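Page header: ASSEMBLY MODEL / two components / 247 residues total.
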Amino acid sequence: MNQSDSIKTIRLSGELEIGRKDEIRDALRRSPGDRAVLVDLSDVTYADSVALTELLRFCVASSHDAIPVALVVRTPQFARVVEYAGLAGAFKIFGDRDTARVYLEHSGAE
Amino acid sequence: MKRASELRLHCPAQPQYVAPIRHALTAFLEALQFDRGVRDDVTTAAGEALANVVEHAYARSPSKIARDVQLFARYDRDGRLWVDVLDRGSFIRREPLPGRGFGLRIIRAITHQLNIDTTRGTCVSMTFEGQAFLEKR
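Prediction written out in full:
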C-alpha cells in the first residue's frame, strides 16, 4: 500500500478468488486520514464473485463516509465479470492509474 | 476441428482447491484450442459453481459426510461444451441478499443453459454452445 498523498493506493494482484478472501478483506482497509482510495487491480488476472463482494462492501462503506474510490482494471476477465454480475454501475472503473487519480483529485481528494 | 474430449476432477471441497481445479479446466480448454475469451468465461462460470460448493454446500451437512466436489467437463463433436460441478451437500434456495448472490447471476450470464439438480446432493450443469460463444470470443 502507498500513501504518499491524500490518495491512498491499495494494490492487489494475481487471482482474486475464494481462497484469498481473508487476504482481500484485510487489504481493503482505510486509515483515518484517507480522503480517497485508488484500488489498483492492474495486475489482477482473475476475479470471482467473492472478490467482487469484498470490493463492493469496501466501496459502499467508503461511499457512506464520503470517501471516493476508483478501481483500475486492465484485465478483460475482470471487466467482464463485473458486467456479468450487474455491477458495472456500482464501481468507478478506469483503465489506467493517471485517469483514476484525476477522477479522485476532482472528487475532493486534494 | 476440435476433437471430443473429457475431463474429470475430484477434490476436497476446500477453498485452496478451487484455483487448481480452474487451472486444470483452463489447460483442458487450451488443449482444445479455445481462445482466451472462451477459456476465461467458461472457467469463470465453473469457478463460481466451485466457490458456491466450498462456501455453502456443506453448511448444513452432518460432519460424517465426505465434503468433496467433482468437476466433469465434456466437449462433443457437435461443438457443445458441458461443465458439471457436483457435490453431496445441500443447495440453499433463497432470494439473493443485497450485495451478495452474484455467483449464480454470473453463471447465468455466461452459460447457454443452466440446470441445477438437487435430487442427490447438487449438480450444477452448465452448457456452452453456439458459434458466437465458442468460435468468436
